[in-house]
Each structure stands twice: as structure tokens, then as C-alpha cells.
Amino acid sequence: MSAYIIARVEIKDRDQYRHYLAVTPSIIEKYGGSVIARSVEPLTLEGPDETRRIVILQFPNIEKAKEFYHSPEYREARKLREGRRWVSSSSLRDLFPDTER
Description:
By secondary structure, this protein is α+β, with helices and mostly antiparallel strands. It has one domain (3-89): Alpha-Beta Plaits, CATH 3.30.70.100. The protein contains three helices and four strands; from the N terminus they run βαββααβ. It has a four-stranded antiparallel sheet. Helix 1 packs antiparallel against helix 3. The radius of gyration is 14 Å and the shape is globular.
């Protein structure tokens, strides 16, 4: 069953963020993942105004998502964003259509 990582990102240093973006896609792909959505200008429909960029990654299963996140390669990539962007991440698995609850 697919698993997802949802990141809410506030970019503080665009130049350094570009370095992070240059290395991260190949690491995501190495662990079977892909970026399925990335917001440029989030639109808040309800609740507090969301100004952070939202990125959704999809992996074949929760094990691959965890392998990616804790991998030596991604640990190094995360150093490129330390102090330069604020990130809040969550992971989900086993998403079902609303009719299957």
C-alpha cells in the first residue's frame, strides 16, 4: 500500500534551497518515491491562512518512505536546508477512498 510524506515548507534562503532541490529528487527516486504535488501559492479554503509551500511525496510503502527519510543520502541533503527553511513533515499510509471507511 502506498505511503506519503507531506511537507510544509517555509523557505528562508532561496539560493540554499536550490542546492537542496538539486540533490533531493534523485534520492527520492532511489527509494522508489516521486513528487506527486508541490504548491507554489497555497490557497487556504478553511482555517488559518497557510503560507508555506506544501510538497507531497509518494512511496510504494511505509518502509520505503522511512528508508528514504532516514537514509545517509537524505541525512546529508537535509544539512543543506538547516537554518534556511522551516519544515514540518508527516507520513501517511493506507489511504482509502472515502467510500471504504
